Amino acid sequence: MMGRPGPTILVSAILGAVLLLLAACGEEQQASAPPAPHEVTDEAIGHYCGMALVEHPGPKGQVILQSRDEAVWFSSARDAIAFTRLPEEPKDIAAIYVTDMAKVKNWDHPERGAWVDARRAWYVIGSTRKGGMGGDEAVPFGEEQAARQFAEAHGGEVVAFDAVPESYVLGGSDHSSH
What we know:
Structural class: alpha+beta
CATH topology of the domain at 53-169: Alpha-Beta Plaits
CATH class of the domain at 53-169: Alpha Beta
Strand order of the largest sheet: 2-1-3-4
Number of strands: 7
Shape: globular
Largest sheet: 4 strands, antiparallel
CATH architecture of the domain at 53-169: 2-Layer Sandwich
Strand content: 15-25%
Mean pLDDT: 86
Number of helices: 4
Radius of gyration: 22 Å
């Protein structure tokens, strides 16, 4: 006749179950971590303009899709935001990065490695600074205070990613409602 399991077996079974749960949580966190940003190369071509990114001044953007190894490049942060709002563009977005202009010394040639998660960035819209194709730009910053300082110097309004008006990224140049 078998007796009840001893306390050592019971504790071992519970401990094993807890360790399995923790391991599963760790794998889930690793799987959900966004991929690292890519760096702009001479071969990086703007998704909408079809031109080399290195030829354009100002902030850049990149969208990393789950279905592609290469980043989808944008000659402006504004275009990267527009990509996320257009119904015809892919929706399997793994990460979106834009240039953190607070980390950049040269507007015309932003330094490598100055990326910030686009969804966590602050944007100055309606400023006097123009984007990569000479259009209005949503100038990105990793910190709200840096965005506010830029807006004081160059005009514009500071907004979060989700508050950038669709009309600003998809419409023309008249943004008088902001």
